[in-house]
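User: Structure with zinc ion, tokens only please.
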Amino acid sequence: MTAEGRTPPDPQELIVVEGDVGEEDLEFPGYLLASVGTRGAIPGHKLEYQLRWTELNLYAVTDGTGRYVLQVVGRSIAYHRAGGPCNRGVEMRVKDIPEAVYHDLEACQQRNCKPEELGDLPVNTRVRVERNRSSADECPNVDGVVAALWKPRSRLISGLDELAKDLLTEAAIKDSAFLRVTRKRRVL
Ligand SMILES: [Zn+2]
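Assistant:
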């Protein structure tokens, strides 16, 4: 155990966290400290919500600097009618959809969009396929993690506040440095 209560794993694994397209990927020795996601967490949500969800992954960097890496992943398995009202995703022919993605995709249920099932569409039909988005933030310390969690992002992520609190709570179980931000004490 270090002074901060962290237990570095042995051996130190090299981790690569993906940034968004065109952004940097971050490579470092470390381990996954906490991971939370919204998918399936809220029963009763409409299908629209289950087509997109957010994951937060927090890594501890084990090079002695006390840094962390926060990854925010916006996942989507939605596809839309090309030329439809949604105008989201990347347009491609059904036959060009990568195999790894094809079987996970679900039709958007917005009125006037609702494309047919992929298997029922002629292979040359164009659809718009949403992609996952990922950002990787280097955080100098615990406060840096908190700042990165609540910084304004280009896209609106619904439910991020609750998810961020869950992430910090989970991190505090393994890393007592996070207790300072999850528990607040008022002296009377
Ligand atoms: Zn749509």
